[in-house]
User: Fold this.
Amino acid sequence: MADVRTHRHQVQVHPLRQHEGGIKVVYPQSGPSSTKVLAVVAGVPVGGTLLTLAGLTLAGSVIGLMLAFPLFLIFSPVIVPAAFVIGLAMTGFMASGAIGLTGLSSMSWVLNHIRRVRERMPEELEEAKQRLADMAEYVGQRTKDAGQTIEDKAHDVRESKTYDVRDRDTKGHTASGDRDTKTTREVRVATT
Assistant:
């Protein structure tokens, strides 16, 4: 069987490129577009007006400084400390604002942290309760085991003392019979 496939051909269209003086030109040369013409028509008057205003402002500042310089020189003993005090006051206001902004951002962070902790707290609290209950159960079981061990040892000791006294009575280690019964009774009373 023959494999029949259709082959697709792609056609690429390239614009004509003309060489003018060693520079490649993609499009044939034509005049500027209408948007460029409108941008230049609107931009030149606006830019010129702004440059004129900048020049006038600079000239006015220089003339004002030249007129005020003798006054600055005469009143410098008053103006310099006043400028220093104003500068310190402005620095104080700016520092106060920066510290206040830092305080507000810190408070905001703390409040957000508390909110996040509160959201997680019920889960952690439930987990802590479960661990506490498990530990109480473990301690209770260990206490029961320890109590049982103590009870078993006490029972073993009681049994061994009772047998010791009986063995001693039968072997005749003591001289009087009243004394043997008395010793047996003391052991029984002491262990119960």
About this structure: The helical segments are 34-74, 76-171, 177-191. DSSP finds three helices and two strands in the chain. The first strand starts at residue 18 and ends at 20.
